[in-house]
Design goal:
heterodimer, A: mainly alpha, globular, B: alpha/beta, Alpha-Beta Plaits, 4-stranded antiparallel β-sheet
């Protein structure tokens, strides 16, 4: 334990040197980023109940819907592809919900203002928040996927190449998260808007029925939504034995890449614009 | 670890106890303006505000609710973008050199939790220290010192949400100070606190300037707080500074030098008073208050009381308090409008 008198000496004597020598070095930037993620995980750890509840309800809901679609039995042909879509949906849902809810809570309580008093750029703190949100999303998606895998004996082929389109699918989810975080900075009805969009994505991304079984027009609409293109590409690798080269040639991978980059850019633009607007309107804190 | 008295020395900052050269300006705002647009039309929250606060000074920004105090604080911190004007903290422009400017400042904001209630006091201090770019190793001794000095050390691992309002405010103060900023902004720091917690926070604010050379800007509408702590006070009304003076000058400027209060024993019935004097009965005495433009009139009045057999208890010059001064200022400003 530190002697308080010496601690006091250390506390007050070093000012000036530190303040004048401070620079946003890569080490400092990484430290601040890690600090932001650590804070998010500590808060998550303090309240694990919502996460546990989300895993249980979403898993039961998914299995229940599959049971209804299978007219009283589990449809073994639909379960593997829909489970892939389900895991992507859970990631998007939880990551975006965590990010938006935290941001709104911090705006309401004023801690967001305190975080803006950091010498590092607020954009960097957003990356930290995205890191926390994605960790939460991955954790819940993994748990919610593993339970049905074990409970109803679903087999998904292990193909390493599928990780590329699936990672881009998760990147879709993060871009969507960033976009909605940006909207949350300016829109008081963000809860309702988020609920609506997440509901549409859950209905149309293939977690109940593969998108290929949709009517043509609905299939086109579904492909405009985050995660759909990525899930289709992942399913092609997993269940049709296609390689990444095949996906590149048939246009699946370039489209997925372009969509992910486009959605990320849109998310970043909306966030930056609405952050400036919130600071102009005085609604950030 | 008891903080030293906040009273001694406050009034005029001595250069000797400042950690900065007397001429250095810690907080500087030039032509700061901000208008918010609502459904009811535009609201001019801050209007061409100029501020210049020397390093080591405790500066009070006083005004009624809605005067523009909190908006001013947020503008100074870069949390609200001004329509016009600029802010410099220790010479760093908040808009152009934001990183360096933010390293200079800590703040406790009003109507805000300031810290994370789901984290412990210790976790909060580590988080906010690292947020300022410090290493965990350098934060630990500072955090320990602050938590010990504020009486929170034994409960440092409890979540802040379980603390009393006063303890939560102490954690907010510690979080603002953990990175050892040279400028600290307090927005209504004692609002809603019990007497003991308010005393601790006030002692700390005084100590920051007296012992550690910090520059403190505090907003309050508690006049006793401002009068006790501040070297200098600016009065803000409708976003404009209507007075900006050292506390002693502010009081002296509005001190009615010729107002006297005379107390005599017993009820003075039918007493003839000079023009401008009023008498009121109080228990077993009578208090006479009035303006004495010529000191000879005062002596004449006292002679009259003696001749009338009325025992004189006291004669004193009436001292204004800050509240009276501010009310006078507001009346004057309203008249100008």
């Amino acid at each position: 334990m530190t002697d308080p008198a010496r601690a006091a000496e250390a506390t007050w004597s070093s000012f000036g040197l530190e303040a004048s020598a401070w620079r946003a070095t890569p080490g400092v930037v990484l430290s601040v980023l890690a600090n932001e993620i650590r804070k998010g995980l500590l808060i998550l750890w303090a309240h694990p109940a919502p996460i546990v509840l989300a895993v249980v309800t979403m898993t039961f809901f998914y299995l229940g819907v599959q049971f209804i679609i299978g007219q009283g039995r589990m449809p073994s042909d639909l379960l593997p592809p829909t489970l892939v879509a389900f895991s992507a949906y859970i990631f998007l849902h939880i990551a975006s919900l965590a990010m938006v809810a935290d941001l709104v809570e911090e705006m309401r309580t004023g801690t967001l203002g305190q975080t803006h008093l950091s010498p590092v750029s607020p954009s960097l703190l957003v990356l930290g928040r995205l890191g926390t949100a994605s960790l939460q999303g991955v954790l819940v998606a993994a748990l919610a996927t593993v339970v049905p895998l074990g409970a109803v004996s679903i087999t998904i082929p292990a193909r390493g190449e599928a990780l590329v389109p699936f990672a881009l699918t998760l990147a879709n989810g993060l871009a969507f998260t960033l976009l909605f975080a940006g909207i949350a900075l300016a829109e008081p009805f963000i809860g309702e808007i988020h609920h609506l969009f997440v509901g549409v994505i859950g209905t149309l991304n293939g977690m109940y029925l593969p998108v290929a079984l949709f009517p043509d027009q609905l299939e086109s609409v579904a492909r405009l939504l985050p995660t759909t293109l990525g899930i289709e590409a992942t399913l092609k690798v997993l269940f049709e034995g296609r390689s990444l080269g095949d996906l590149w040639i048939d246009g699946s991978l370039p489209w997925l890449l372009a969509y992910t980059i486009g959605l990320t850019a849109l998310g970043w633009l909306v966030f930056a614009r609405n952050q400036r607007k919130a600071m102009r309107d005085g609604t950030l804190v | 670890m008891k903080p030293s008295s906040p009273i001694a020395g406050v009034g005029q900052p001595s250069a000797a106890r400042l950690a900065h050269p007397p001429e250095s300006i810690a907080v500087e705002a030039e032509g700061l303006s901000k208008t918010f647009h609502s459904l009811n039309g535009p609201i001019r929250a801050v209007d061409s505000l100029d501020l210049s606060i020397p390093a080591g000074q405790v500066f009070g920004l006083l005004g009624p609710n809605g005067a523009g105090k909190t908006t001013t604080i947020k503008l100074l911190l870069g949390l609200v973008t001004p329509d016009e004007g600029r802010v410099r903290l220790n010479g760093y422009d908040v808009a152009r050199a934001r990183g360096q400017a933010m390293r200079q400042v800590g703040a406790v904001l009003e109507g805000s939790r300031n810290v994370y209630w789901t984290l412990s006091a210790w976790q909060n201090l580590i988080y906010f220290g690292r947020l300022k770019g410090m290493s965990t190793a350098s934060i630990r001794p500072r955090a320990e010192y602050l938590l010990r000095a504020l009486g929170l050390w034994e409960r440092r691992h409890e979540t802040v949400g379980g603390y009393s309002r006063g303890m939560q405010q102490k954690v907010a103060v510690a979080a603002a100070l953990v990175a050892d900023p040279s400028i600290v902004l307090f927005d209504e720091p004692t609002l809603g606190l019990d007497v003991e917690a308010a005393r601790t926070v006030k002692d700390w604010i005084a100590r920051l300037a007296q012992e550690h050379g910090k520059t403190v800007l505090l907003t309050t509408h508690q006049l006793d707080v401002a009068e006790e702590l501040c070297h200098r006070i600016a009065i803000i009304r409708q976003g404009k500074i209507v007075a900006d003076l050292p506390v002693s000058d502010l009081l002296a400027r509005f001190r009615p030098q010729d107002m006297y209060q005379i107390t005599i024993r017993g009820r003075a019935v039918g007493l003839e008073l000079p023009p401008g004097f009023q008498a009121r009965a109080e228990d077993s005495s009578t208090v006479i208050v009035g303006r004495v433009e010529d000191p000879l009139h005062l002596y004449k009045l006292i002679d009259g009381l003696r001749d009338g057999g009325l025992p004189l208890l006291s004669v004193s010059q009436v001292q204004p308090d800050l509240e009276e001064v501010i009310l006078d200022l507001f009346k004057g400003a309203a008249h100008d409008d």
